[in-house]
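Task 17 of the worksheet. Students: predict the tertiary structure of the chain below and write it out as structure tokens. Keep your answer in the requested format; marks are given for formatting as well as content.
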Amino acid sequence: MAYNILYKKSVSKDLRKIDKRERAQIFKKLQEVLSKNPKRGKKLKGRFRELYSYRIGDYRVVYTFVPQGVLVLRVSHRKEIYRK
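Model answer:
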């Protein structure tokens, strides 16, 4: 079963900060991995316990499940992703 991958509007702002080549790699991985097996990511703890994180190189993709598929909430460098 393939899941639809949806993006929150703020993800486009996150992606503008990332190099073009790395951005393409992130999109490719999202389509290959998350659309087929979204539970492959790590379930977060604490106040983020409903969210999942998937590692792509030095970047992390934070997502959750919605009835339509997988909703990507943030894409950021590993040092910055869990701040705020």
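Marker's comment: The longest strand covers residues 69-77. Residues 4-77 form a domain with the YaeB-like fold fold (CATH 3.30.2310.20).
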